[in-house]
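Provenance and format

Records in this collection were gathered into a single text stream. Each protein contributes a sequence line and a token line. The two records reproduced below are adjacent in the stream.
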Amino acid sequence: MCAKVILKHKLEIRDKIIAAALISFSRKGFDKTRMDDIALESNVSKGTL
């Protein structure tokens, strides 16, 4: 696999996580958002976070 493809995939996952975190923060607030919420919203594992 090409390094550019790997980098592109990583950036896509990063963007999904950030978007999911913003959604979770707006729904529950920063203090009440859990890693589980972000993982579920972004459809990635907690380990990936």
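Adjacent record:
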Amino acid sequence: MGALDSLAAYFRFGDHETDLETESIAGLTTFLAMSYIIVVNPVILGEAISLEGYSSGEVTQMITVATILSSVVAMLVMAFWANRPFGLAPGMGLNAFFAYTVVLGLGVPWQVALAAVFVEGIVFILLTAVGARRYIIELFPEPVKFAVGAGIGVYLLFLGLQEMQLVVDNPDTLVSLGNVATSAVAALSVAGLALMLVLHARGIRGSIVIGIIATAVAGWLLTAVDVVSPGTLTPPGSYERMTNEGLLSLIANVQYDFTPLVAGFIDGLGMISDDPLVFVIVVFTFFFVDFFDTAGTLIGVSQIGGFLDENGDLPEIERPLMADAIGTTVGAMIGTSTVTTYIESSTGVEEGGRTGFTALVVGGLFFLSLLLVPLISAIPQYASYLALVVVGIIMLQGVTDIDWQHPAWAISGGLTITVMPMTASISNGLAAGIMSYPLVKGAMGEADDVSTGQWVLAIAFVAYFAVYFAVDAEMLSF
């Protein structure tokens, strides 16, 4: 048996009706769709993390290395233990909560915040090992499970259209249509999206990757020939750095030593006793949001991949859950925020990714990006987000699995779908569906159909929001 045959046997390509080429393209697609986190996560965390004797640029590069390594660890577990095609990395939203709310807003030292993420990861590992996370997720009402995919789809659409500048802020209506005639980003994005949709409609393999790369290259070429000014269609400062320093120089000057962040984490463990109440609240918030964000993402992406069973459950879900738990724990130790499964994984699944080899490819490309951080950062975010629009449209097919004639299904499913994009939170969408389901079933005289666990889950969300809205930030400062 050759190496390729062994690889196919290990990842069970035959069982999933896939092959090496399909899985590789899927991995590349997911990587391109989520690689922005390599640049964005360090920028966000860099606002909150400072180290004596190091410049902000050096700290940002340390966090970049920590971001990449924590993602690689999580995806190795996903590939070899879970055999699922999901990509993982420090989560958007959770990193903003870490930086802007916990550290900058509440005054919690970043070292203590890392310790809180570490504790959250340990709790996740323990709960996953005993099957508690799987049990809780399987308590989700059926309409919520089937609505998650469509909810994430609308969320992805909204995120993508915003980054493309086709949806813009409006003081009167919150959002409105962007002006393609005056926005170079919107104009190029529309052209790139059209290319991607045409290729996808014609069944061209790798259509999403082709669309992302073609749009990014077009942006750089239009900048190089002075059609637009630097920074308009290219990431801010990237064109100047590439022109003045050259790619090889940029690669050679990356700060790889992240041990000062590790030392900060160790210091944070020793600072927990300074205010244990604040620490517990921070851990609880990280835990709650991450738990349901990850659950919603896994169910939503799995629905598109056809991985769910007839009850809307993901078989052996504890395996992919263990990947994010281990990634979170390791990530906190080396200097980054909570690691979670990425909704951008849906782009690779749409390209045909069905096994852990897709995750292995994503992890391998993340590792290689240690050498190519400047090149990865050269892909404009709007180009990557074109993929979210395409996948968001595809994920809307999940609405057909909902019984819209049944009030409990319609209300809980509808709230799940709409609250996600409107509050920019997967967990909030799940909360709306989970809390409304038992209430509507009870009103219909069908309370006996609601399990005790589903009532407890709904009450837990009520308690969470009570704490979330009642806590006074001024009382939570070190």
